[in-house]
Every structure is written in C-alpha cells, then in structure tokens.
Design brief:
The chain is an alpha+beta fold. The protein folds into two domains: 119 residues, Phosphorylase Kinase, domain 1 (2-Layer Sandwich), CATH 3.30.200; 113 residues, Transferase(Phosphotransferase), domain 1, CATH 1.10.510. The chain contains nine helices and eleven strands. A six-stranded antiparallel beta sheet has the order 1-5-6-4-3-2. Strands 7-9-10 form a three-stranded antiparallel beta sheet, with helices on one face. Helix 8 packs across helix 9.
C-alpha cells in the first residue's frame, strides 16, 4: 500500500519529523505512522496511557511509541513552547549513545500539530534484543544475576557522572541480556530526565524505585561508589533508606 505523505492529511495536520542520520531512508515510514496506527498495523506490546507497537519496515524490526493526546491546555503548551515527549525521548537517547549507555537505537520522532494545537507524537527505535527486564530477577533464576545488578550500579553511575538521572527508573525500564562480552543493559522510557549536578544523596535516591534485597543493594552500592569515588557503605545505607519509603514493595525479598 502506498502511504500518502502529502495531501489532505497534511493540509489539516502539520507534521514535524526528525530522523537519526543512520535512518534517513525511513522518512516515508515515519510520516505514515499515524495512518498505520489508525489501520491497526503492527503488534501491540503495551496499551495504556501510551501505546507501543512492534512494526517491520525495510527489513528492520521497530518499536513505535505513540504518546497520548494531552489535555487542551497542554496541547497549546506543547504546540508552541515545550518539546514533545517523543522529541525528549529521542534527544535523551542520543545523549545516552554519546556517553556509551545502552538504549534501543533511536530512529526518529514525529510530531503532529493541528494549527497551534499539538495533537500527538511518536517515537521510533529499533527493537531491543534484550529478552529480560530487571523485574525478572525476582521471578526467574539467572546464574549471572549478581553481574546484572553490578552492571546496573555501574551504568547508573556513568549516567550520574554526566549529570543525567532517569526520573522513572523502575523495574520495567531496565532491560538486560547476557552476551559474550558480559551483561548488557538497555534503559527505556527516556522522556522524563533530570539533567544537572547529582551528588551522592541525590544519586542514591535515584535507585529508590528499584526493588532490591540487601545483597542486591550491597552490589549496587559497591559498583556505584567505585565509579563515583563515594563511600560504598554510605551509599548502601542511603539506598536502603530511600527504598524503604516506597509503597508496595511486594518484590523486595527482605
């Protein structure tokens, strides 16, 4: 099917596209995403406030995230003043790539605006090859579980050293896999990011949404402290203290 990039839909809705340099040949696909979603194309991975679908195009396995339409006030704000969630996700993913932190390879984003009002935005990445999420550590046996936890502590420290803190650093947003070179993690859902100085206390607080046993907290603290030059015991105490304030810690195996 030939997807129409120009015509009536573009008279009614202005579309803004940005593509990663490696994927300039994806322009036609990107412009056609709203119509593909409307036609039910792809496999739904998650559907809630936002929707994720797996799609294939040009031999590439992709994940397309459609962000929900904001309320009327925010439609004006996003339409004129603020970058969309899709743009923030894309920009943050490029920042992660620059410092060597894993995240699914960004392809690009599309904003759709109707007049001065923002409508929807879409963020596209290559599909991750990581088969597991952090939360699986509590439901499956991994003989390399300690290595996964250490890697999370080390990679988080790298992010914080560069002044980046994921603001939704939860059990479902850290993917991992075992490779010949060790454990690889990829971090997803990047639209909410703190950017600025991160001291020991603020850094340890960033782990508060991750469930962890005392042993896991010890590993996280040791790796985090080693990278950042902090005291490991103090980091351990802070991580446990901040985690204890979180409601519903059903997976913390204390």
């Amino acid at each position: 099917m030939k997807w129409v990039k120009h015509g009536l839909c573009h008279l009614l809705a202005h579309r803004t596209l940005e593509l990663c340099p490696d994927y300039q040949n994806m322009e036609d696909f990107m412009y056609s995403i709203p119509e593909r979603f409307a036609a039910g194309e792809g496999t739904v991975v998650y559907k809630g406030r936002n929707e994720l679908r797996k799609m294939t195009y040009g031999g590439l396995d992709l994940v397309v995230k459609s962000f929900h339409r904001p309320n009327l006030i925010n439609r004006f704000v996003y339409g004129v003043f603020r970058p969309s969630k899709a743009k923030r996700s894309y920009d943050h993913a490029r920042m992660y790539q620059e410092i060597g932190v894993g995240t699914p390879a960004p392809v690009g984003y599309l904003n759709v605006r109707k007049g001065l009002l923002f409508d929807r935005s879409y963020y596209v990445t290559l599909a991750s090859t990581c088969p597991y999420v952090y939360n699986d550590l509590f439901y499956q046996h991994f003989d390399y579980a300690d290595e996964v936890v250490r890697t999370v502590g080390r990679v988080t420290a790298v992010l914080h050293e560069h002044g980046y803190a994921h603001k939704d650093y939860g059990r479902g947003n850290i993917l991992f896999q075992k490779t010949d070179k060790g454990v690889r993690i990829e971090i997803v859902d990047l639209n909410r990011m703190y950017i600025g100085p991160i001291d020991m206390r603020k850094g340890c607080k960033n782990f508060e949404r991750l469930p962890a046993t005392p042993h896991m907290h010890r590993l996280l603290a040791e790796e985090y402290a080693a990278v950042r030059g902090f005291d490991a015991e103090e980091c351990f105490k802070l991580m446990q203290a901040f985690r204890s304030t979180q409601p519903g810690k059903i997976n913390d195996l204390y």
